[in-house]
Design brief:
The complex is a heterodimer of chains A (113) and B (110). Chain A is mostly beta strands. Chain A has no helices and 11 strands. Helices cover 0% and strands 53% of the residues of chain A. The chains are: A mainly beta (113), B mainly beta (110). At the A-B interface, strand 4, strand 5, strand 9 and strand 10 of A face strand 3 and strand 4 of B.
Chain lengths: 113, 110
């Protein structure tokens, strides 16, 4: 079974802190994604990566950056956390060919105070 | 990607079939219909997808109308563990972006 793991289930950070959210997948998938999920807004794509060292902006990239140095790991970085970044963050991965479903991690609930 | 419309909530009795509708009237010829679900406090889980033919797997069946403007996800014998938010998504095969709306909250009652 595909396994997508996220470094923390719950995280509390202070405004202005630099925050790292880590995601690891074990199926050699080319594509990886970061979403955030908020009530009334559904899931929104922040960034995605087609391959190592490659990244593309999603629908709401402002305030975020990403890093993909190894194929299995995709990191989301909040350079200076703000209260409006309090949210559920979900990582996903998929292979790069054909009609392929995305496999999601369990999510990280981030609270910025 | 085409927009989808789903009812916000549905109820179903345990052991009965759950039929979840989705409208996607602006779907284009190369777009697939995907269904995912999200159980509380978990990440979304892929269920099934289809282009124009009906599809069945171990989790569910997907019925797509001939004009492809709507579809129905069928859980043949719903259990309490099927209580979740179900998302209908339309996307190209090569597209990486899956746009999740608010979905349908399905509650399976004992």
């Amino acid at each position: 079974d595909v396994k997508v793991t996220q470094s923390s289930r719950y995280l509390v950070k202070r405004t202005g802190e630099k925050v790292f959210l880590e995601c690891v997948q074990d199926m050699d998938h080319e594509n990886m994604f970061w979403y955030r999920q908020d009530p009334g807004l559904g899931l929104r794509l922040i960034y995605f990566s087609y391959d190592v060292k490659m990244k593309e902006k999603g629908d709401i990239p402002e305030g975020y950056s990403v890093s993909r140095e190894k194929k299995e790991r995709f990191s989301l970085i909040l350079e200076s956390a703000s209260t409006n970044q309090t949210s559920m963050y979900l990582c996903a991965s998929r292979t790069g060919q054909g009609v392929i479903e995305q496999y999601f991690g369990p999510g990280t609930r981030l609270t910025v105070t | 990607d085409a927009k989808t419309t789903q009812p916000p909530s549905m109820d179903c009795a345990e052991g009965r079939a759950a039929n979840l509708p989705c409208n996607h009237s602006t779907i284009s010829g190369n777009e697939y219909v995907y269904w995912y679900r999200q159980i509380h406090s978990q990440g979304p889980q892929y269920i099934i997808h289809g282009l124009k033919n009906n599809e069945t797997n171990e989790m569910a069946s997907l019925i797509i109308t001939e004009d492809r403007k709507s579809s129905t996800l069928i859980l043949p014998h719903a259990t309490l563990r099927d209580t979740a938010v179900y998302y209908c998504i339309v996307s190209r095969a090569s597209g990486s972006r899956l746009t999740f709306g608010e979905g349908t909250q399905l509650t399976v009652n004992p």
